[in-house]
From TrEMBL:
Belongs to the YjjX NTPase family. Transmembrane segments: none annotated. Signal peptide: none annotated. GO terms for molecular function: ITPase activity; metal ion binding; nucleotide binding. This is inosine/xanthosine triphosphatase. Its EC number is 3.6.1.73. The keyword Membrane does not apply. The keyword Nucleotide-binding applies. NCBIfam families: PRK03114.1. GO terms for biological process: nucleotide metabolic process.
Length: 174
């Protein structure tokens, strides 16, 4: 089975590879840098979802694999509070796109202010943690859950949902 991944982000690619290997044998993975066609910092569930779908479809265009994944992280506001949100999509060769959302968690107001001022979460988290490439490792979720969940684990949950939907689609349930 050929599986295409619409990112080279280490946390996201690890999530896809870990989960897909659990459910399928003889898998070949290929990674692509594809556009999300949304803002660098998506600011709603709708925009974040669309970014994941766009990545999946753009991956399908360049790879035409059996499974073409797109994962996207963003933020949204609810009742004056800012939350991280995460979406995933898988595009199938027939053009079908399956999507789902994952964990959402509160960001501190100091981080939210930076994002409202136009900054992107990844660099803000690097500055906050005094580390480099936080988005490839623990991510904001790792920092703001006291290390209980890292970014790969968060995206693994989304990929499991996508694989489950794909299996139901194959069985004509979806």
């Amino acid at each position: 089975m050929k599986v295409a991944i619409g990112t080279k982000n280490k946390a996201k690619t690890a999530a896809i590879e870990n989960v897909v290997r659990t459910y399928f044998e003889d898998v070949q993975f290929e990674q692509f840098s594809v556009a999300s066609n949304v803002s660098e910092q998506p600011f709603s569930n709708e925009e974040t979802r669309q970014g994941a779908i766009n990545r999946a479809l753009n991956t399908l265009k360049v790879a035409n694999a059996e499974l073409n994944f797109g994962l996207e992280g963003g933020v949204h506001e609810l009742d004056g509070l800012m939350y991280c949100c995460n979406w995933g999509a898988v595009a199938l060769p027939d053009g079908t796109v399956l999507s789902c959302a994952g964990a959402q968690f509160l960001l501190p107001e100091d981080i939210a202010k930076e994002l409202r001022a136009g900054k992107e979460l990844g660099p803000v988290m690097d500055e906050f943690t005094k580390e480099k490439d936080t988005r490839h490792h623990s991510g904001a979720i790792g920092v703001f859950t006291a290390g209980l969940i890292n970014r790969t684990e968060m995206f693994e949950h989304i990929v499991k949902l996508l694989i489950g939907q794909y299996l139901c689609y194959q069985d004509n349930i979806l």
